Amino acid sequence: MLTLIYFILAALGLSFLVFIHEMGHYVMARRVGMRVEVFSIGFGKAFVSWEHKGVKWQVCYLLFGGYVKIAGMEKEGNKEPHEIKDGFFGRSPLDRIKVAIMGPLVNIIFTLLIFSVIYISGGREQEFHQQTNLIGYIDPSSELFEKGVRAGDSIREIDGHAYNNFMDINYSAVSSQETVDITGNRINYTTGEQTPYSFTLKPYPNPYMAGDEFKTVGVLAPANYLIYAGYPIPEHAPMANSGIEKGDRIVWVDGERIFSLVGLQKVIKRPESLLTIKRGDKQFLQRVPRLKVGDLRLNREQIGEFDDWKHEIGLKGDLKELTFIPYAITAHCVIEGPLTYLDNDSRHQTVEGSLQSGDRILAVDGQEVVSAFQLLGKIQQRKVQIIVSKDSSMAPFSWRVQDKRFEEGFGGEDLQKLVATIGVDQDVRAIGSLRLLNPVTPIEHMKFPRSKNRQAMEEGVVSKAREKLDEIKDPKERAAFEKRIQEYVSGGSLGIAFADHAVNYNPSPLQMCEDILLQMKRTFTGLFTGQLKPKWLSGPVGIVTIMHHSWSLGLNEALYWMGLISLNLGILNLLPIPVLDGGHISFAIYEMISRRRIKASAMEKMVIPFVVLLMLFLVYVTFQDVSRLITFFK
C-alpha cells in the first residue's frame, strides 16, 4: 500500500514541476497580450478538461510532460505566424524571450525555495558513506594500492576539483580519456598523523564489472560504519553467541581495521588463520594461509608426523583433506621452515615474508595451543577475531565532522593494546570503548540458512550470471566476471545485518545548486566526448522511480529530488535547441539582431528534426528505465 502511495506522490510531484513550468509561460504570455488556446498537463488523450477565460484546460493520461499552446505557434491557413497579431510570433522578440524564459526561471526559483526550506528545517539525513571523503576498499592489484594508499585514507581532490563523495571518483575514472589526478592524505589511525599524497593514475577496467566501459583507479568502495542495530540474530547465525550488543561497531577483524562492508567480506572469506607468534622477546599476530594437507609437498617422515597428530587429536577422514599451514613445525609448535605447496593455479610455491625458523606459535585464531596436534585440531575450523567499538550515540551528527568522528571510533593506541592480548591473556576482553567478541566461525554465503524466497532469488542471480558468462567472449572480461561469481558464491557471511551511521547533510541552498550544476556539466561533457553512455541516463520512468524511493526516505529527501529535477528541467529547457525554450529565445535574438522574420517553413525544417530526435531519445531512455526495472524485479 505504501509503495502505491509513494508512486502516486512521485507522479504528482513530477506533474507539479511541469505545471509550474507551464504556468510561468502562461502567466507571462497573458501579460504581454498573447492569446493562449490550451493549457495541458500531460500528453495524449485528456481524461478531464474544462474551459476558463477562453483557454482550454486539460489533464491527460500521460502525465510525464505538458505544454501551453499559444496562438500563432503553428501556421494558420496562408498566414505566416508573425501575421497573427495576438499570437506568439506576432509579438516583439523581447516579449517572446520573456515568455520563453519564464518557464525555466520559475523552475529555478522553485528549486531555490525548496532548498531554502530544506536548509532552514535542518537539512537531509544521509548515510555516512554517501558523503565521506574516506576510502572503504582499494583493489589490491591497482597502481594506487602499489603506491601505498590504503582503505581508511582520505581523498581531497580529483582532477583539481574538491572531492565530495564516491560518485566523483567514479565519474572521473569513467569519463577520463587518459589519466586521473588524485590527492589526499594517508592516515595513521594509531597516532592520528596524516601524510599528504598526490598521484596521476591511469584508469583501468573495473575487475568486478563485465566490460571495459566501467573503469576505476582502484577505489572500489567508500568507507562506511558497520553498526549492529539490534535486530534479532538467528540462533544458527555465526554471530549469535559472539556477545555483540546493540550499537556495537565493528572496527577490527583478524589483524585489519575494517573500513567498509566490502573490506569485512574480503577479510572473513580469506582462507587464512590468525596466529599469535612469539619471536625472541616479541609477540605479534600473523595471518597465514590455510591449505589442504594434500596440497603441501611433504616427505614420508612429515606425512607420518601428520598421521600421528591426526590420531592423537581424534580427527576422522582422509588426511589429505585436513587443513594446515604451509610450515614444518616441531611437536611444540616451533617453526622449522616453510613448506612448498600447490596453489589454485596448480603451481608449486613457497609462502613468503611471514614466519621464520624459531618462531613459536602460541595461539591459532585466539585459541591457545602448546602442541602440534592441538594446532592441527584447532585449525580445522576457522574462527574470526572481532573487536567492536561502542558508539555513545546513534543520533545523526554533522557531515562537517563526520570523517573525524569515524577516525576516532578506532580507539587509537587502545586498539593496539587490546590486539596484543589476543591468544595470550584471555582475561582481557575490553580496553576503553573497545571490546573483543567471542570467536566467530563464518559460513559460506550461499550455505547460510535463509528463506525459500531468498534462496530462490540468490540462486536465480547466480544462474543468470552464469548465462551471461557464457556470452562473454573476451578472455579477460570472462575471467573478471567469473571471479565475481565465485566471490559471490563462496563469500563468507556472519549472518548479521549492519547499519551505517546517519549524517546530517545541510549545505547552503546555493551550494546545493552549484553541486547539481557541476553534475550536469560533467554529464554533458561525458555525453559529448562519448565517455558516458546515453543508456546510463534516466527518462520519465526512471525519474518517477527515483522520486518514489525518495518519498520512502522522508519529506526533505523527496523535496530535495523535486528541487534537483526542477533545476534540471529549468536548465535543460534553456539549451539553444529549436524544440526547447532556449530555441525560441535563440530565434528571438536572431530577429533582434538581423531584423528579419523567420518564415514558418524554415522554422519547421529546424524544429521537426529535433522533435523526432527528442521523441526517439525519450523512447530510448524509457526502454532503458523499464529494462533496469525488469532486471531488478527478476
Question: Can you describe what's shown?
Answer:
This protein has 634 residues and is an alpha+beta fold. Among the domains are: 2-123 and 507-633, no CATH class; 272-378, no CATH class. Helices cover 40% and strands 22% of the residues. The protein has 17 helices and 30 strands. A five-stranded antiparallel sheet has the order 13-12-24-27-26, sandwiched between helices. Strands 6-5-7-8 form a four-stranded antiparallel sheet, with helices on one face. A four-stranded antiparallel sheet has the order 15-14-22-23, with no helix packed on it. Helix 2 (93-120) crosses helix 13 (509-529), helix 11 packs antiparallel against helix 12 (475-490) and helix 14 runs antiparallel to helix 15 (555-572). The relative contact order is 0.13. The model has no long low-confidence stretch (mean pLDDT 83).
Output the strand order for the largest sheet: 13-12-24-27-26
Low-pLDDT regions:
none
Query: How big is the Rg?
Result: 32 Å
Q: Sum up the overall morphology in one term.
A: elongated
Tell me the structural class: alpha+beta
Descriptive labels:
17 helices; 634 residues; four-stranded antiparallel beta sheet; alpha+beta; five-stranded antiparallel beta sheet; 30 strands
Quick rundown:
The chain is α+β, with helices and mostly antiparallel strands and 634 residues long. Among the domains are: 2-123 and 507-633, no CATH class; 272-378, no CATH class. Helices cover 40% and strands 22% of the residues.
